[in-house]
User: Which sequence fits this backbone?
């Protein structure tokens, strides 16, 4: 964990430097009579971030923070598996939105999580996979008048039927 | 006595059958809209505004005010049960509401939120009724330096009193504030901090993207990982007797938070451009500051739920005050209400109380009635919300992930923001592993868009002289308190070192 904390502080320090660099494009000076320029506020805050990461790294090197006193790895086998299966599943879900539509992606993600990860019965899984996306559709598109992505053209016939119901 | 008579007449208007029905429908709809991540009172009021053209103007604004009330109550539900602050006003409720739910005390958290909301709403209604014109004048004396001082005080309560690692807290606040500057410079209008030259950043980064990413994705993955997947379901119990007991516990352990939230919330709500979000965050910070056990905050303290919930309800009523008396909206939702009033031919301002007395007092009467029905409806639905929590975690978790993504899209309408939400989620997961407090970043991205312009406007007013913050009677004491709180960690560090030679 100690090395992980120092590396994280280093990555965040680099991010802070990048943000400082970007802020300079708007001017970071203080113009007499008119006040600070556009980049003033983000620049000095990013510098605050950079200084903080210095203290965080120093505390980690001196073993003062709880994380730096731990011998556990940042991610063990279970952690890596969780990140891959759960985190990967969410990334897959979002990636499917532009293909299957928001509601189609929800159905596939629910099927994956309930059946593959949760190992629930089909009796629970199927109603959740079918009813939950439909409930979301009628709530958002019907009641709230908020349109969600409809995916690629092959989903059109399904949406035509659903839109006929609400309009 | 005249006020009481007018209020009585107003209440009679509010309990007319049509208005009463609209209040019931409004608070129930608002409760569910507020409970949905990504949707808040502003969405509910904006979307249902056209429906109100079917009823008389007085009834229409009563309906919209009831939605506003319901949504304020509802915001706490997703914060507590799902751990996702559905609206910015409920961010602070997550800090202690979610830990309480994870400890199997979801019922206590939900009851505390409902009761505190009711108390906050009632206190603010009384203040509104008695002191409307006076408070409107005081609010007008708050200029950019005073508002900036208030924002600094909000940040200071997190730095000076956080039990967390101070450099990590400072990093978190600065990071949230920098994220709030992405998009366009509000004063010059120039593009600013368009990261990696991606056009998606031109629209800025909404607090919702960060909050849903952090709490809906990052925190959930962290929970699954840290519990080794053994978290099956919450053991929260449902019973009427339990709800009554929890009400007693709320008053016993959360009275300080409720009192602070009710009064501070109302006053911050009255200030133009402030609103319920800064009110709830500041009330949380001040409650933590004056608590005998500040370290318990963030781990499931009833006061940590009561303070922000009392505050956001109180501020909602407070923000109606400048709208009605001066025509200045105190929050985005009241801005829409103001628009509605103008469409209905009502002109908000000092003359409204004289020329449209029936309308104004009918509305004020409806605040009391809405507040009462909101707490009744909320308490009645608690078993449903608890039932949600009793689902197996492998059912609840995908529901939370889906609601995070769908709710995020509903609010932002841009897939770029959904990818950003995932990046924040995974980032928050790793930062959480190294004990970085993420709540201050969420606080900062909410308050940043108020803090930066007020700082720059203040410096423009003073031709760049920072002493403006210390030379005005209201901003000076607030600034001094804020600076003391910021320096408190250093003072705490010095005290034992000085004490050593005397031992």
Assistant:
């Amino acid at each position: 964990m100690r090395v992980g904390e120092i590396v994280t502080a280093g990555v965040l320090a680099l991010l802070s430097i990048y943000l400082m660099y970007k802020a300079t494009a708007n001017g970071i000076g203080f113009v007499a009579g008119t006040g600070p320029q556009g980049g003033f506020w983000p620049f000095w805050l990013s510098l605050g971030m950079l200084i903080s990461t210095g203290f965080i790294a120093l505390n980690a090197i001196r073993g003062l923070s709880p994380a730096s006193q731990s011998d556990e790895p940042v991610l063990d086998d279970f952690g890596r598996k969780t990140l891959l299966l759960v985190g990967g599943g969410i990334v897959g879900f979002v990636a499917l939105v532009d293909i299957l539509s928001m509601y189609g992606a929800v159905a596939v993600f629910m099927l994956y999580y309930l059946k593959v990860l949760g190992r629930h019965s089909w009796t629970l899984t199927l109603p959740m996979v079918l009813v939950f996306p439909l409930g979301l559709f009628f709530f958002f598109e019907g009641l709230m008048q908020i349109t969600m992505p409809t995916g690629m053209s092959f989903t059109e016939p399904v949406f035509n039927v659903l839109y006929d119901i609400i309009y | 006595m005249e006020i009481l008579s007018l209020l009585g007449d107003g209440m009679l208007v509010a309990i007319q059958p049509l208005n009463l029905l609209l209040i019931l429908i409004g608070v129930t709809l608002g409760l569910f809209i507020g409970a949905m991540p990504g949707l808040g009172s502003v969405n509910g009021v904006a979307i249902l505004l056209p429906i109100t053209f079917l009823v008389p103007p007085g009834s229409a604004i009563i309906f919209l005010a009831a939605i506003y009330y319901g949504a304020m109550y509802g915001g706490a539900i997703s914060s507590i049960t799902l751990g996702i602050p559905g609206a910015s006003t409920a961010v602070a409720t997550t800090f202690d509401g979610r830990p309480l739910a994870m400890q199997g005390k979801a019922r206590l958290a939900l009851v505390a939120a409902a009761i505190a909301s009711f108390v906050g709403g009632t206190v603010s209604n009384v203040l509104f009724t008695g002191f409307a014109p006076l408070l409107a004048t005081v609010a007008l004396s708050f200029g950019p330096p005073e508002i900036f001082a208030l924002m600094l005080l909000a940040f200071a309560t997190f730095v000076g009193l956080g039990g967390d690692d101070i450099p990590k807290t400072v990093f978190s606040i600065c990071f949230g504030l920098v994220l709030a500057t992405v998009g366009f410079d509000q004063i010059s209008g120039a593009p600013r901090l368009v990261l990696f030259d991606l056009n998606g950043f031109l629209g800025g980064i909404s607090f919702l993207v960060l909050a849903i990413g952090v709490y809906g994705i990052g925190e959930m993955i962290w929970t699954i990982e840290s519990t080794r997947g053994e978290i099956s379901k919450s053991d929260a119990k449902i019973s009427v007797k339990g709800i009554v007991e929890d009400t007693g516990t709320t008053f016993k352990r959360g009275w300080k938070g409720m009192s602070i939230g009710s009064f501070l919330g109302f006053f911050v709500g009255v200030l133009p451009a402030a609103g319920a979000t800064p009110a709830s965050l500041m009330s949380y910070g001040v409650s933590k500051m004056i608590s005998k056990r500040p370290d318990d905050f963030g781990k499931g303290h009833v006061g940590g739920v009561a303070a922000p919930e009392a505050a956001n309800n109180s501020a909602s009523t407070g923000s109606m005050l400048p709208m009605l008396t001066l025509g200045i909206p105190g929050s985005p939702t009241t801005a829409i209400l103001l628009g509605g009033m103008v469409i209905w031919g009502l002109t908000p301002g000092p003359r409204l109380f004289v020329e449209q007395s029936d309308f104004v007092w009918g509305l004020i009467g409806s605040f009391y009635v809405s507040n009462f029905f909101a707490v009744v409806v909320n308490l009645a639905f608690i078993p449903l919300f608890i039932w949600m929590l009793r689902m197996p975690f492998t059912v609840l978790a995908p529901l939370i992930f889906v609601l995070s993504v769908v709710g995020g899209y509903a609010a932002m309408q841009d897939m770029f923001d959904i990818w950003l939400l995932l990046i924040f989620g995974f980032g928050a997961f790793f930062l959480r592993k190294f004990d970085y407090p993420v709540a201050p970043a969420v606080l900062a991205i909410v308050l940043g868009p108020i803090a930066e312009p007020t700082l720059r406007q203040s410096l423009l007013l003073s031709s760049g002289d920072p002493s403006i913050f210390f030379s005005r009677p209201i901003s000076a004491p607030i600034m001094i308190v804020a600076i003391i709180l910021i320096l408190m960690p250093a003072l705490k560090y010095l005290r034992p070192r000085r004490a050593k030679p005397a031992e």
About this structure: Chain A has a mean pLDDT of 91.
